[in-house]
């Protein structure tokens, strides 16, 4: 439900309780669905109904001798009966709470998707490849820590935003990477939830709430650009189509334009960072739709920058592929050869990249071997079909 | 709300060469921190503990009580001292924790259980 983030955030800020806010929202939503006519302002209605229900719950609990001072924390009945219009926007506050650095990196994104987007725990568990009970326990523990450890329900002062923002963006990036890995949409189909769309919504929300933070804009642009290719990532058989072979007519140009606008705004602010560089790389690939070719020199330079900002074997592999486009497959293979092969033995992108360059260098047998290794590493269905087709084509 | 900042640190740097000078430096850091806490009007208390080699642990297992020579857990980082501070929330507690001088180790930050009507 589109109103959820705003309503849950406003409830959480008032009640100072994540569970209470979620429960109040669920009860409000249920009551809303039972109405004969939908209310004019759904968000405001849900906020008021949710708050009233939470207040009732606290009253009951208090008469049972618990939470003596909780009642004092929330404002009185008069304020509840008058419709606040518009309801306070506390989404940023809620986001900072869910992504507090005192919570484990691995649970922040899950907590944000659960509380802010209302994604079921089963979907979040599948997204992060853990069992449902394990994810449930992580989220429960995180909520308990928010409640007990003194994590403030106030918006942190601006001076600590850079540190806090990093935690928010990392959480989003994890969610995005996980959602993007589901190329074939099998996970989304299984769960009846469009996970990529939820992550996109969250990324756009962060960019909307923090318009002065260029990295927040960069990450939103990155998510949009990845999502713009959704319609082109699979062939009719369900096999993955690599970026360079995608039919550009199937890209979503509204998303590409939106992303471009976000990146221009980020650039005007003038503080570069890894997410902006990653988005710039994706945008350079997008130029193929307009220029007919990819400016591989530009891609290579951007990977050089990214490698300095955020060195990782995965970035180095992508850089080697770009280098091969500029200087030839041999140069790309040499760059791959300089990476620690034994540490990458279990990384599928490593074998896929080697197979690609070996095939281009005319070493079909070696390319086949690399593809076999990639196939042995249990790729998702869409990638497996593509790898098998590449192998057959050798 | 009250937080306990537990200083778990490696004792060995103080024993090695230049250990005495290091200790002096760290103690000066604690004095400065205490002054800053006073200046910020933050109620606090704290103590420095003698080394883990002086520890005795009382263990209980279903009513059977035994004594052990040594700290609760054998690690290379030992509880060396603590502060209890009263600040609005975790963020402030973490800021103060970052200012505790620790050559090698970590600070565990935990809210103190508030005794209320719920006990």
Order of helices and strands of chain B: EHHEEEEHE
- List the total number of helices of chain B: 3
Sheet having the most strands of chain B: 4 strands, antiparallel
Distance between the termini of chain A: 48 Å
* Approximate helicity band of chain A: 55-70%
Helix-residue proportion of chain B: 25-40%
> How many strands, what sense, and barrel or not for the largest sheet of chain A?
none
Q: Whole-number average pLDDT of chain B?
A: 91
Strand content of chain A: under 5%
Q: Roughly what fraction of the amino acids of chain B lie in strands?
A: 25-35%
The strand count of chain B comes to: 6
Structure description:
The complex is a heterodimer of chains A (394) and B (119). By secondary structure, chain A is mainly alpha-helical. Chain A has a domain of 76 residues. Chain A is 69% helix and 0% strand. Chain A has 22 helices and no strands. In chain A, α14 packs across α15 and α19 runs antiparallel to α20. Chain A is elongated, with a radius of gyration of 24 Å. About 3% of the residues of chain A have low confidence. With 119 residues, chain B is of the alpha+beta class. In chain B, strands 2-5-1-6 form a 4-stranded antiparallel β-sheet, with helices on one face. A two-stranded antiparallel sheet of chain B has the order 3-4. The longest helix of chain B is centred in the N-terminal third of the chain and has 21 residues. In chain B, 14% of the residues are buried. The model of chain B has no long low-confidence stretch (mean pLDDT 91). Classes of the chains: A mainly alpha (394), B alpha+beta (119). At the A-B interface, loops of A face α3 of B.
